[in-house]
Amino acid sequence: MAEEAPKTTPTQEEKVHVEEEVVVTTADKTEKHKEEEASPEKKKPVEEDTHETATEKSKPSSDENIPESGSFKEESTRVSDLADIEKKALQELKQLIQEALNNHEFSAPSNNPPKEDNNTENKGKKEQAEEEEEEKKEQVAADVAPPAEEAKEATKEEGEAEEAKVKETEVVDDKEACSTADEDGAKTVEAIEETVVSVTVSSEQEAEETKVESKEEKSSPEEVSIWGVKLLADERSDVILLKFLRARDFKLKEAFIMLKNTIRWRKEFGIEELMEESFGDDLEKTAYMHGLDKEGHPVCYNIYGEFQNKELYKKTFSDEEKRQRFLKWRIQFLEKSIRKLDFTPGGISTIVQVNDLKNSPGPGKWELRQATKQALHLLQDNYPEFVAKQVFINVPWWYLAVNRMISPFLTQRTKSKFLFAGPSKSAETLLRYIAAEQLPVKYGGLSKDGDFGISDAVTEITVRPAAKHTVEFPVTENCVLSWELRVIGWDVSYGAEFVPSSEGSYTVIIQKARKVASSEEPVISNNYKIGEPGKVVLTIDNQSSKKKKLLYRLKVKPSSSD
C-alpha cells in the first residue's frame, strides 16, 4: 500500500495570522452590513425623499456636535520608568529574540516541504515488469542466433589460446629483467605510498577545517536591523521592542510573533529596495512633514482634499496597479519619516498626524476607501506605536457616521489618540498642540517662507469681545522694525502707528485703522524705518461678540545709513 503523506499542523504564527484575517474579514462584513443599513434608499427608492429630509435634519448645525478626544498620554521609553511586570516582559522578549537570532529564525525560508508520492509502490512494480520483459527479449535473441555466429566464436577462441601461449613465453623472457629492477621498484612503491598517505592526511585536515568553519557560521547569531536599529545591540533596541509590547498590551508571545511577522513582511515587501525607488512629485501635496508640535514630535499633514482633482484621483486609484503604487509611495514616505526619529530612551520616536478632511471625497469613492483601508491594515500590523496623536480637522458631518461605524473595531488605546475638530475650530485645536511659528499659515499659524522663521517666537493673545487690545514696542535707536500679525477669523479692526518719545513730535500713522474681513489675506506683514526714539503701537479692536485669538511677532534690523 502507498504511504500516506504526513499531515502538517499550522504553526502558532500561522494560527495568529489566520485569526487576524478572520477578524478583518468579519469587520469588513460588519461594516458593509452597517453601510447597507445606513443607506436604505438603495433598497427602497420610494422612500428617497423622506430619507433625504431625515439626513438633512441629522446634519450638525455647528462644530459643537463633533466629539473631541485626545486623552492619550504617551508613555516613557526609559526602561527605568517601567513597571516591574513591564520590565519582566521586555527581558523575556529579549531572550526570545536572542534564541531566534541564534537559530537564524528571522531569515529562515518558509518553504513548505514537497509532498510525497503515494504511487511509489506502483511505480516500482511497473519498472520491475519492464526489466523482466527486456531480459526475455535478450534471451530470445540469443536463442535464434544463426550458426555462422557460433563458428565465428569458435575461431575466436582458438586465436585467443595461441595469443596466451605467446604471452607466457614473453613473461618468461622478461623475468630476468624484472628481477634486476626489484630494488628500484620497491623504493618507488614506498615513495608513492608516502605521497598517498600525506595527500590523504592533508585532505582530511581540510575537510575538518571546513566542517569547523561551517559550524562556526551556524553557531554565530544572525544580525537583524529594523528602522536602522540593530536588534539587541544597544538601548535603542529596547525602545523598538517596547513599541511591539505596548501594541500587544505586553502579551509576550503576541508581541514576539508581531515582531517576526514585521521583519518577514519587510523582506517580502522589499523595504530597502523601496527606499531607492522614485514615484515622482504627483503626490507631494497630499502628504508632507512640516515643523514640530509643542512636545517636539514631527508633524505630518495628510491633505485628502487634493484627491478632488479628478486627474490625480484617476492617476492614483483607477486600477489595482495604481493603488499598489500609491501604497508603496505611502510606505516609503512613512519609512523616511521614521528614520529621522530619535530612538534613544527619552527621545522623540513618534509622529503627530494631522488629517485635513476639507473637500475630502465622500464615502462613495470606493477606490480611495479601498486604498486607505489597505494602507491602514499594513500600518497597524507593521508600524506599532509610531503615532502620538491623530488630529482630524475640518471634519464634515458625514465623517461622524463613518467614525461611529469603525469605532467598535478600534482599541481604546487607539481611540484615545484621536482628536476631532470641525471647520470653525480647526485652527484653535491645532494651536493647542502646535506653536504658531511651527503651524502653516493655511491652518492658522504663521509658518511660511519669508523674513521670519520657526526660531522667531510668536506671541498669542486672547482679545475679549467688544474690547480693544494694543501691542507696544519701544525703540531707542535707529532701526527697521518688521512684524507679522493675524487674528484667527479676523472680523476686527487693525491699525498701526509710531509715537515719538520727544515732546512736540507728531504721531506717524503707519496703517490707518480698518476692518479686516475673514476672507482677506490671513497674515499682515509690515515694516517701518525708525529714525528717532519712540514706540510702535499696533491696535486690535474687536467689536464682535466672540473672543478672538491674536498672533504676532516682531523683529528688529539695524538701519542702513543713507
TrEMBL record:
Organism expressing this protein natively: Canavalia gladiata (Sword bean)
Subcellular location: Cytoplasm; Membrane
Biased composition (Polar residues): 100-110
Region annotation (Disordered) ranges: 1-83, 100-187, 200-219
UniProt keyword Ribosomal protein, yes or no: no
Domain CRAL-TRIO: 276-451
Keywords: Cell cycle, Cell division, Cytoplasm, Lipid-binding, Membrane, Transport
Superkingdom of the organism of origin: Eukaryota
GO MF annotations, alphabetized: lipid binding
Name listed for the protein in its UniProt record: Patellin-3
